[in-house]
Every structure is written in structure tokens, then in C-alpha cells.
């Protein structure tokens, strides 16, 4: 064989031996922040060869965009920050049904009853307190206890915060608008102190401005990682109390996507042990599967599951009704 023919044949052999790189590209609408989730998306891309082009934005904003685009949407996957947005998009008929093997073994608090979206991680509501200025016997057993006179002026909350509003939506689903309004008005009448967000409530407890606050579980670890003596502690209310709501980030395949299988592959990856370990240790959120190494800065996974109330996550989509109720209570 001549040298002239040998080179092209050798090149063909090399090409055949080279690994095949997928030309598939997914478009992801992500309501989760870039700094939080891009590292795990990079791992997915590296392992599968499937490229992921991400459009970052507010969860509600992207949910509205999906509804406006309808069947013309370029999105293949939607990743929302909370169950309310996932429920809204689901009810609009914009999500594809997921294969049952993706979600069948997950606890009920981590999956949609409709089977078209699944949680990627959980964020538990609970209360924070000053271990120096409170006694264990005085801690509230229910979030409804916080309207009691003994907590007057000692409790913080953040009515304009998105996670708080999702919690109020859950209270409305579980107890109805009138009881929820009664609680909101009772908290206001009991001189609950208004804060901008969860972080400032923690700072308020540490500084002695308040003795209690109601927040998401992952904020305190941000302080205790840097200062083991940070003067704030946290715990759940009594088992099943609505104050222990486990809200979730959720992911779904968009029905209009022409790349259903690749999109399902991304969803599967986000509930895989590899991704779940990342959410647990790096993001301080709860995994949706068992067998994940425990983050020592947050309450145990099984404890969070036990404390959380059972609620239909698809029903947490009534934000407008929640905002109306907060306005009636004079809180926004």
C-alpha cells in the first residue's frame, strides 16, 4: 500500500476509535441561581456530552414566560425554585409526564401527584432561637403558638420574602384563608418584628433584637460554617406542624420539547446520588433520596422528613391569593 493511501486510512481508523460526543443541546429555564447550580450542570455536560444552554431568571418570571410561549417554547427543561411555580406550570398543561421510574421511590413530599415534575432538593421551614435568652420549655410546639402573649415583641418574620409567602400559601391550602388571616393578624398584633429576609432574622437573634425567627433551614449553616459559636440555634416545631413545611426546588420536562429523552436524562441526573450529594453538602439543602452523606450543619434528613407535614405540592400555586391575604393583613 502506498504512503499516499495509508495516511487517509489511518485517519479514518482514528476517527472510528475516538469517543462519540453527543451533538444534543438542551435549553434549560432555571429559576435556581447560577452560582448554586451551574457546577452540577457542568458535571452533567461532562459526563453525558449533552450541552445545556441555561436561561437564568426568576422562578415566577420563567413560569409566566413558559405559559406565554406555550407549544412554541424553546425550553426543554424547567427548573423552578419552589413547588408553587411547578404546580402553576403543571396546571397549565405545559409539562410532559415523566417516566415512573424517576420518581416512584421518592417520599411523597418530594414528588408531584400528577407525575410530571419531581423535586431536586428540599428546604425545610423551622424556627430559630437564642440559646442564651430562651429556655427549651418555652419553645413553641406549633407556629400557631407564636401569637401567644409570651412571645410578644420577641419574634421576627419576613412577610415580603418569597419562601415565607410559599409557606403562607401552604397554610391556606391546609387551613383555609380565614384561619390563615387570623394567624397573620395575630402575629402583627403580637408585635412580630418585620425583617427583610431570612439572613437578617438570624442577625437579629444574634444581636438580641429578637429571640425567635421563622426561616428556612439552610441559612444558619452559612453562619456556623465560619463561626461555630454563632449565638443562634434552630429546631422544628412538633411533628407534622405546618411551620415545618418542606418546600422544594422542582424540575420537569417541557411538553413542547423535541428532545424528550435527553431532557429526561437531565432530570434523572439531578435526582442521582452524585447530584444529591452536591445539594446536601454544598447547598445545605435536603436530598430527595436516602443514602446521602449527612451535612453536619443541618438537622438529619430523617428528622426533617418526619417533621414535615404531608401536603399536595401542586396546590402551592396560589401566590396571588396569598398576596391578597397579606395585603388584607396590612403586611405588604
Automatic annotation (TrEMBL):
Belongs to the bacterial solute-binding protein 1 family. It comes from Marinospirillum celere. Gene3D superfamilies: Periplasmic binding protein-like II. Residues 1-23 form the signal peptide. This is Iron(III) transport system substrate-binding protein. Fe cation binds at residues 218-219. Keywords: Iron, Metal-binding, Signal. Pfam families: SBP_bac_8. SUPFAM superfamilies: Periplasmic binding protein-like II. GO terms for cellular component: outer membrane-bounded periplasmic space. InterPro entries: Ferric-bd (IPR026045), SBP (IPR006059). GO terms for molecular function: metal ion binding.
Amino acid at each position: 500500500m502506498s504512503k499516499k493511501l495509508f495516511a487517509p486510512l489511518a485517519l479514518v481508523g482514528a476517527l472510528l476509535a475516538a469517543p462519540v460526543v453527543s451533538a444534543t443541546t438542551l435549553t434549560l429555564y432555571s429559576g435556581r441561581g447560577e452560582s448554586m447550580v451551574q457546577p452540577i450542570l457542568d458535571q452533567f455536560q461532562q459526563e453525558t456530552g449533552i450541552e445545556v444552554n441555561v436561561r437564568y431568571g426568576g422562578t415566577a418570571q420563567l413560569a409566566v414566560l413558559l405559559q406565554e410561549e406555550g407549544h412554541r417554547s424553546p425550553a426543554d427543561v424547567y427548573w423552578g425554585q419552589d413547588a408553587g411555580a411547578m404546580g402553576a406550570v403543571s396546571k397549565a398543561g405545559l409539562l410532559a409526564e415523566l417516566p415512573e421510574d424517576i420518581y416512584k421511590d421518592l417520599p411523597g413530599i418530594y414528588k408531584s401527584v400528577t407525575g410530571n415534575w419531581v423535586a431536586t432538593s428540599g428546604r425545610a421551614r423551622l424556627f430559630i432561637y437564642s440559646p442564651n435568652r430562651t429556655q427549651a420549655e418555652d419553645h413553641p410546639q406549633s407556629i400557631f403558638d407564636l401569637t401567644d402573649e409570651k412571645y410578644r415583641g420577641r419574634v421576627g418574620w419576613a412577610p415580603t420574602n418569597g419562601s415565607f409567602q410559599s409557606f403562607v400559601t401552604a397554610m391556606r391550602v391546609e387551613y383555609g384563608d380565614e384561619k390563615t388571616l387570623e394567624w397573620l393578624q395575630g402575629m402583627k398584633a403580637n408585635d412580630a418584628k418585620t425583617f427583610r429576609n431570612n439572613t437578617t432574622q438570624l442577625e437579629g437573634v444574634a444581636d438580641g433584637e429578637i429571640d425567635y425567627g421563622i426561616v428556612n433551614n439552610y441559612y444558619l449553616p452559612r453562619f456556623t460554617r465560619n463561626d461555630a459559636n454563632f449565638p443562634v440555634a434552630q429546631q422544628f416545631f412538633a411533628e407534622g406542624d405546618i411551620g415545618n413545611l418542606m418546600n422544594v426546588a422542582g424540575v420537569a420536562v417541557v411538553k413542547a420539547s423535541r428532545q424528550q429523552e435527553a431532557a429526561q436524562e437531565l432530570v434523572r441526573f439531578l435526582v442521582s446520588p452524585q447530584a444529591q450529594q452536591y445539594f446536601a453538602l454544598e447547598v445545605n439543602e435536603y436530598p430527595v433520596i436516602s443514602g446521602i452523606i449527612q451535612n453536619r450543619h443541618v438537622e438529619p434528613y430523617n428528622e426533617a422528613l418526619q417533621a414535615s407535614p404531608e401536603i399536595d405540592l401542586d396546590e402551592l400555586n396560589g401566590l396571588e391569593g396569598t398576596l391578597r391575604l397579606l395585603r388584607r393583613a396590612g403586611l405588604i
